[in-house]
């Protein structure tokens, strides 16, 4: 964002970025040390995503993640953060039943962890939930396009909004969430042209992950972005480092030195 960064990022700063044609960066985060590193690096927004289920807890999907899980990891991220705006996902099963359930979960998450906003998956069917959250004092980011919590309904990880009707419906969903009070809309796995159409229709900022370059912000899962996780990466992932190699090389060296007796040496003793 601008060179004169605020002492603490708030919703108004992201709206200013949209209004002034500037951009901001978002990364997932799940612990205090990493939060501190990302914060010091200038990342404006941190997300405790339910992707913690895949990246940290070892689940095959995000679906088993609980509200208690998100609260625990959110507390850690908030402790490690000074400047970045911290957002957390409302996990599967914590908001769908009713607006009242969404408010109960959202208020608890904010109150117990100290985050600044929640993210909720879904389109216009959740406008009452978003409106109730905002009325209760909980800032909300909407999440449309591919929504991982609905992968069983969507038929797996599939690009959303490919045809004209689906694209039009996505614009309608985004507008409905904006009018319900969401201060930003995240789009996942959406054709760039459709994401651009959504962004142009909205007055609030957009955040993209696999949604082209015309959104106000961009987000990636940090273990993917820094090459810690191995295997096939989604097309939208750019790896800026290969931490898997760095870590495995270092650990292998430590292991070898312990076995051969060269660690600890005299300099590492008392």
From TrEMBL:
As for family, the record states: Belongs to the PanB family.
What is the name attached to this protein's record? 3-methyl-2-oxobutanoate hydroxymethyltransferase
Note on cofactor: Binds 1 Mg(2+) ion per subunit.
Cellular localisation: Cytoplasm
Q: Which cofactor does it need?
A: Mg(2+)
Pathway in which the depicted protein is active: Cofactor biosynthesis; (R)-pantothenate biosynthesis; (R)-pantoate from 3-methyl-2-oxobutanoate: step 1/2
Which reaction(s) are listed as its catalytic activity?
Answer: (6R)-5,10-methylene-5,6,7,8-tetrahydrofolate + 3-methyl-2-oxobutanoate + H2O = 2-dehydropantoate + (6S)-5,6,7,8-tetrahydrofolate
Q: Which residues form the active site?
A: 188 (proton acceptor)
Any idea of its EC number? 2.1.2.11
Keyword Magnesium listed: yes
Q: How does it assemble?
A: Homodecamer; pentamer of dimers.
Q: Which organism is this entry from?
A: Citricoccus muralis
Binding-site positions, Mg(2+): 50, 89, 121
Keyword Ribosomal protein tagged:
no
Which GO terms fall under molecular function for this chain's record? Answer: 3-methyl-2-oxobutanoate hydroxymethyltransferase activity
The protein's role, per its UniProt record: Catalyzes the reversible reaction in which hydroxymethyl group from 5,10-methylenetetrahydrofolate is transferred onto alpha-ketoisovalerate to form ketopantoate.
State the InterPro entries in the record.
Answer: Pantoate_hydroxy_MeTrfase, Pyrv/PenolPyrv_kinase-like_dom, Pyrv_kinase-like_dom_sf
Question: Which keywords fit this entry according to its UniProt record?
Answer: Cytoplasm, Magnesium, Metal-binding, Pantothenate biosynthesis, Transferase
Where 3-methyl-2-oxobutanoate binds, per the record, is at 50-51, 89, 119
């Amino acid at each position: 964002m601008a060179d004169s960064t605020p002492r603490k990022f708030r919703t108004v700063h992201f709206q200013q970025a949209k209004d002034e044609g500037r951009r901001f960066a978002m990364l997932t985060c799940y612990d205090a040390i990493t939060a501190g590193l990302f914060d010091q690096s200038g990342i404006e927004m941190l997300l405790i995503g339910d992707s913690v289920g895949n990246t940290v807890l070892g689940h095959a999907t995000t679906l088993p993640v609980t509200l208690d899980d998100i609260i625990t990891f959110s507390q850690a991220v908030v402790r490690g953060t000074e400047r970045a705006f911290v957002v957390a996902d409302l996990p599967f099963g914590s908001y769908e039943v009713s607006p009242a359930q969404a408010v109960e979960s959202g208020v608890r998450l904010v109150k117990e962890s100290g985050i600044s906003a929640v993210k909720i998956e879904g389109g216009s069917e959740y406008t009452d939930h978003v409106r109730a959250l905002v009325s209760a004092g909980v800032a909300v980011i909407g999440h449309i396009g591919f929504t991982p919590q609905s992968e069983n309904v969507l038929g797996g990880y599939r690009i959303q909004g490919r045809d004209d009707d689906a694209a039009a419906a996505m614009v309608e969903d985004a507008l409905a969430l904006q009018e319900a009070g969401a201060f930003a809309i995240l789009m996942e796995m959406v054709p760039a042209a459709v994401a651009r159409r959504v962004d142009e229709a909205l007055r609030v900022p957009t955040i993209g992950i696999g949604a082209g370059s015309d959104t106000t912000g961009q987000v990636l899962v940090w273990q993917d972005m820094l090459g810690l996780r191995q295997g096939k990466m989604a097309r939208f992932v750019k790896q800026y480092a290969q931490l898997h190699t760095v870590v495995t090389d270092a650990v292998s060296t430590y292991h070898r030195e312990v076995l051969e007796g060269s660690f600890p040496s005299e300099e590492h003793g008392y």
